[in-house]
Amino acid sequence: MRIGPITLELPAVLAALAGYTNLPYRLICRRLGAPYCSTEAMLDRQLLLPGKLRRRLVHTDPADHPVAGQIMGNDPKVMAQAAAELCREGFDVVDLNFACPVRKVLARRRGGYLMRQPELALEILRAVLAAADRPVTLKLRRAFDDEPEMQAAFWRIAEGAFDAGAAAICVHARTAQQRYTGKADWEFLSKVKSHFADKTVIGSGDALSAPQAAELLRQTGVDGVSLARGALGNPWIFRQLADHLAGRPMYRPDLLEQRQLLEAHYSHALQLFGPRRAPKMLRSFGIKYARLHPHPSAVRVEFVNIDSEGDWQAVLERHY
Q: What is the third-level CATH fold of 2-246?
């Protein structure tokens, strides 16, 4: 799988996930085989303001490459300025979010709302391409909704993007209005890849496990799979996908390895967020990690109530 000059041996990427794909979790996924990661979606204007939030958003590490900085906005000039900032900060790829289905984002005419405005989306892309000195990619939905003109808008954006010089598109096989409900339309992904046979197309939607991710690749013919919800709490999914594609038994971490990974995740979070913020930041991760535990319900409840490093360590002692 190729993204511009970047070649990935495993055809899988860690998707941009708000509240999750910060540097600590990207480093955890890297150690388990993630070849390529995206940041959380960053509001373009946030990148132009100095301060702690900006520093946390753009913080990377030598082990965190290749990495895409994902930005979201609706003003071509501001998006171009944000893209230039990402290049200066050392990101390998600039990724444009035209897919986020969160109501607050749509109400502000960002993210998936751009699927309704193909000409503005392409104007943003062209401005970013002019400002960036590295590959630019797009995250799209198959449409804003199921109206015929909205489906036509997808093809206008995708074709215009590749004509303008985009390195790849990642397509989530649901509409923005669907958000994450209903079944992802893998047949649509097949059509997209058939149409752009010589371009890099990454598929997204319902790849919640390594076998499902492999099946998405097989059924649709896309070049790579974007792992989002399936990677939350199971960073081993990258190793498991490599096993599955190679015909090996899929790796299953025991409790000791799960604990060691939880400890490493906490250590990374402590360095970036500090002792007051790190435990609270890891509550949501703990809830996801609990799914792999033999007693997930009991462990999940305890992670919900974490408020300090002592609470975090107590859960590990009791359950891991």
A: TIM Barrel (3.20.20)
